[in-house]
Design goal:
Layout: H1 2-38, H2 53-67, H3 84-99, H4 117-130, H5 146-157, H6 160-163, H7 182-195
InterPro entries: Multihaem_cyt_sf (IPR036280), NapC/NirT_cyt_c_N (IPR005126)
Organism: Candidatus Jettenia caeni
Domain NapC/NirT cytochrome c N-terminal: 53-113
Amino acid sequence: MLKLFQKKNLRIYIVITGIAISCFESYALSDTEQRRENTPSVTYSNPYFKGTKEEREALIKRMTSLLGVDCNFCHNEDLTVFTEAGEKSKEMMKASVALGVECDHCHIDLNHYKENEQQARKMFELSEVMGTECNFCHAGKEKLTPKGEKSKTAFVTRDWATEGTKQCLACHIEKKQFALNFYGWQVLNAMRGLKGM
């Protein structure tokens, strides 16, 4: 009789334990899902900020101090969405990485710029017209990619600094990463012929 009582209690114990585990799993899963919903989906592996966490935080502090802005200038409060200014800032940060410079290369503060800012504006316009990013031509401070070296020749010979980007479309196809149109190929072949290539 004692064995039968122990078997019956064992079955009850197993059933109660199973129910308790099931309830706990359900609670734990719903709590985890709720935490996931409340946790911003932010990664700190930002391609624009290099170095240790401390170095990246110091760069962000220098940038926000220089521009006189808070985090919510570029981010929503959960750090999950960029504001319009944040989207623009991402483009600026790509440029700063490609050029190997920081924000103070062009910015004095949020509304004041250094002399090279006009050239930067022209470069951003050129990038837009040609469908490229800064790293298409730039490989760090005062360094150019091979394609950037070729472009530099055209910039000098075609007076890009004074004449502007629109004249590039005389030889290039818009938003095609400097792909040549028919006239551009004629000019290139003529130049090759003159050089005996």
